[in-house]
Amino acid sequence: MVRENPPVKEPDENDIEVGMPKNWAAGMPGVLHSMVPALEHMGVERTRKTLLSMNHKDGFDCMSCAWPDPDHRKAFEFCENGAKAVTWEATPVVVSSDFWAGHPVSDLLSRSEYWLGMQGRLTEPVYKPAGEDHYRPVSWDEAFSIVGNKLNSLDSPDQAAFYTSGRTSNEAAFAYQLFVRGYGTNNLPDCSNMCHESSGWAMGQTIGIGKATISYDDFGKADLIIIMGQNPGTNHPRMLTALEEAKDNGAEIVAVNPLPEAGLKRYKNPQQVKGIIGHGTEIADQFIQIRLGGDMALLQAVSKRVLDAEARNPGTVLDHAFLQEHCEGLEELKLHLAELDEDAVLEATGLRVEEIDELAARYLKADKVIVTWAMGLTQQKRGVATIKEIINLLLLRGNIGKPGAGASPIRGHSNVQGDRTMGIWEQMPPSFLDALGKEFDFEPPRDHGADAVKTIQSMREGGIKFFMAMGGNLVGAISDSNAAEAAMHGTEMTVQVSTKLNRSHAVTGSEALILPTLGRSEIDRQAAGEQFVSVEDTVCAVHPSFGKVEPVAAALLSEVAIITRLARATIPGKTSADWAGFEKNYDLIREHISRVVDGCEDYNTKIRQEGGFVLPNGPRDSRTFPTPTGKAVITVNELEHLDRPAGTLILQTLRSHDQFNTTIYGFNDRYRGIKKGRHVIFVNPEDLAELGLTDGQRVDVHGISDDGAERVLRNYRIVAYPSAKGCAAAYYPEANVLVPLENVAHGSNTPVSKAVIVRLDPAREQEPVAPTTAAGE
Predict the structure, then answer these.
(1) CA separation (Å) from 377 to 204, 303, 472, 655, 671?
(2) Cα distance between residue 162 and residue 177, in whole Å
(3) CA–CA separation, 300 vs 397, rounded Å?
(4) What residue ranges do the domains of the chain occupy?
(5) Residue 163: helix, strand or coil by DSSP?
(6) How would you classify the pairing of strands 632-633 and 327-328?
(7) For the chain, which ranges sit under pLDDT 50?
(8) Same topology for domains 93-195+415-615 and 197-409, yes or no?
(9) 681 - beta bridge partners?
(10) If residue 308 lies in a helix (H) or strand (E), which one and from where to where?
């Protein structure tokens, strides 16, 4: 039953409660935090249809992460965050037509992300004309006409940019990039620009493919799994089940992170008796609490120990056959690491020699090793080089292209990898553009387009005047929030394709439209019948996704329908694409995909196989490397010291347990002991003592940068927390304001959100706050 606009209660940030961090994840609390909100917000029947269908072979793919599905699924094949995500999307609460008259854009701009999202599902197109402060409902035809006319009035197609969120299906992504290139530009920024772009660049330059070289089953076959810069317990909790299975099979696990994370300490699997009433499974055998920015130094130090072990016992340590046949650059690496300064390594990592020796010993003992990582590595200044060092370490002992071993970047968004496969990239290779042009009888643009950071920069300079987003919340997700919002306000038109309100709907161009769309959980009915879509997970498996519940409103259009109708209103005749046919029957899109996208031949047949199919992956499947020389490249990378001036800390942004990307589900972060608030900064107690600050004190957090611009978070509560010394943490998207737009990773242009130099000053207005209390579990 559809409901409208409930009252939204937000906590007073001065009433934040802080307890001790937890030392285990999931268990019965995970079940309760999954089911209670679902039943409360969706009701019994909608909860049953969604949760029992999510991640099943005849169901829909979870929208909260890209974690792969096992061959043998359980009845409850979802995690707490997945349940929160589907509850958020499938809620019957809708935004009413009279909402827009009562809430001008200036009012929306004053609201929090939480309040905006809690207003419910968007159900009708709305338009904000130039010079006005209100959206108003319009018909679909009027909306498409407004957008088409605007695009065709621009002086150049490159004055427009078209963003994509990772929730977009393969079919929608392929149609979207075709529309954009048919219009005439490669300005296709996407969420990958801000997360795993560093992974793609590093792996592409070393092994020829920017994707994981493992399958799901490899976790259960590994001897050693090294987890770097990620928090599975919050960001992709289903990974904990795979780690538990690996431990049961005898694997050792090492966690490398500046913060201790509950899920990497102990996991209580809620689908097993020992996870409900027992102790659960100890996950990490070794926790390496690394200083922010020190991962590259650690990896080089371990590789040097591997090479030293080979020098002591020639022919017994390195995989010489693999290195000779499949790799190049080994001798250069040997010479480079022979000069590695151990003192510099210890300073960069904040570790003891014994900790590095222990990790090296584990690596040398293991025959099959997986290294897996996420944004803790990619969002560093030297993120690309750091991931190249992961590849170096793996190659030395042949840990790519054999069962139980490989490189595993973990994508945090459900189809960000599939979108890239389908052509959502501002730098698609000529081979893809050639095939696309041949298939649709047009000449695609060849100049590289703008990524996410360059899009904001171009807006600021007046180059990009039109911005469209297929999902997502770019101004909420991108660095340097104030600069990004000012740039977006300077555009002539913004268009958002969305299921719910977020910050990007309030930060508009002179004109703005919101186009509501179906959620992935909802049934998609078109002229040819019910349609399904497909997605690609983080290990290159492509599988179908079927909506299971009725849409919250009859007038909602699918993403494919929105794209195809927009194309018909904007670029009729520019390509040979049958846009109307695409909307009626998604099989037609997949037929074209099969002829354009490598590895997707006979797409319609393969996607209908039980469980879908797996894309080919040379390094994983046959130890073939699509590099210029046909060999994997061992690289030499120079260390850069991350300087921390006296009186400052190195800050990383992170997300709480009650959020997904910029979507805020609530104000608790129970694994870290935080309740009823988000305006906190986690600081090591020793650092507090050195800085003359105290737990519970209110501070202003100032970003320190070379450009001299003031970037500050006001009135944040200090939480004494066991972070790495010299390092601090705060939640994004709020803390994005501290990250300068120009502070990007070398090579990938990814915002550097894991190395922000900050200064803490007593807040201008102090509020009395109780110090940390309460016991852990």
Answers:
(1) 16, 18, 22, 15, 22
(2) 9
(3) 15
(4) 3-90, 93-195+415-615, 197-409, 649-762
(5) strand
(6) parallel
(7) 1, 767-777
(8) no
(9) 718, 730
(10) helix 295-312
Whole-number pLDDT of residue 777: 27
Left (φ > 0), alpha (ψ -120 to 50) or beta: where does 70 sit? beta
How is residue 653 written in tokens? Answer: 């942004």
pLDDT at 92: 86
* Residues belonging to the chain: 777
Residue 58 has a CB neighbour count (10 Å cut-off) of: 10
Span 515-548, pLDDT tens digits: 999 999 999 999 999 999 999 999 999 999 999 9
- CATH code 3.30.2350.10 for 649-762: no
Judge whether 189 and 426 are in contact, CB under 8 Å.
yes
Q: Which token pair is 518?
A: 């179906």
- Where residue 749 falls (left for φ over 0; alpha for ψ -120 to 50; beta otherwise) is left
The CATH topology of domain 197-409 is Dimethylsulfoxide Reductase; domain 2 (3.40.228)
| Res 75: pLDDT | 55
Q: What torsion, rounded to 10 degrees, do the Cα atoms 505, 164, 206, 410 define?
A: 70
Residue pair 323/396 in contact (Cβ under 8 Å)? The answer is: yes
Please report the pLDDT score of residue 198 as a whole number: 97
Predicted local distance difference test score (pLDDT) of residue 772:
41
Cα dihedral sign for 60, 66, 67, 68?
positive
User: Quick one: DSSP state of residue 449?
Assistant: -
Q: What is the per-residue pLDDT for 25? A: 80
- Phi, psi (deg, nearest 5) at residue 108: -60, -35
Instruction: Report residue 695 as tokens.
Output: 């737990």
The answer to whether 503 and 736 are in contact (CB under 8 A) is: no
Max CA-CA distance within the chain? 77
What confidence score (pLDDT) does residue 2 get? 55
DSSP, residue by residue, 703-749: E--TT---EEEEEEEEEE--PPTTEEEEETTGGGGGS-TT-B-TTT-
Could you tell me the pTM of the whole model?
0.94
Report the distance separating Cα 272 and Cα 268, nearest Å: 8
Distance, CA of 79 to CA of 65 (rounded, Å):
10
- State which fold the 93-195+415-615 domain adopts: Rossmann fold (3.40.50)
The full DSSP string for 493-513 is: EEEEEESB--HHHHS--SEEE
The rounded Cα 143 to chain-centroid distance in angstroms is 30
Cα–Cα dist 194/484, whole Å? 14
Structure tokens at 324: 């000779």
- Beta bridge partners, 529, equal 526
Per-residue pLDDT at 353: 98
Q: How far apart are CA 184 and CA 572, in angstroms?
A: 13
Closest to 126 (Cα-Cα) out of 163, 92, 97, 103: 97
Q: What single DSSP character describes residue 570? A: H
- Interval 449-474: pLDDT, tens: 999 999 999 999 999 999 999 999 99
Tally Cβ neighbours within 10 Å of residue 125. 23
Distance CA(23)–CA(672), nearest Å, equals 9
Residue 733 preceded by cis peptide, ω within 30: yes
Q: Residue type for 6, please? A: P
3-class secondary-structure state, position 282: strand
Q: Which residues of 433-443 are buried (b: 16+ CB within 10 A; e: fewer)?
A: bebbbebbebe
Distance CA 80, CA 85 (A): 9
H or E element in which residue 562 lies: helix 559-570
What is the residue whose two structure tokens read 């101004």? Answer: 475
Cα–Cα distances in angstroms (integers) from residue 190 to residues 100, 163, 413, 607, 681, in the given order: 29, 5, 11, 25, 29
pLDDT of the residue at 69: 73
Enumerate residues 6+ apart whose C-beta is below 8 A from 95. 4, 5, 119, 120, 121, 122, 123, 501
The pLDDT value recorded for residue 768 is 45
Residue 115 burial (CB count, 10 A): 15
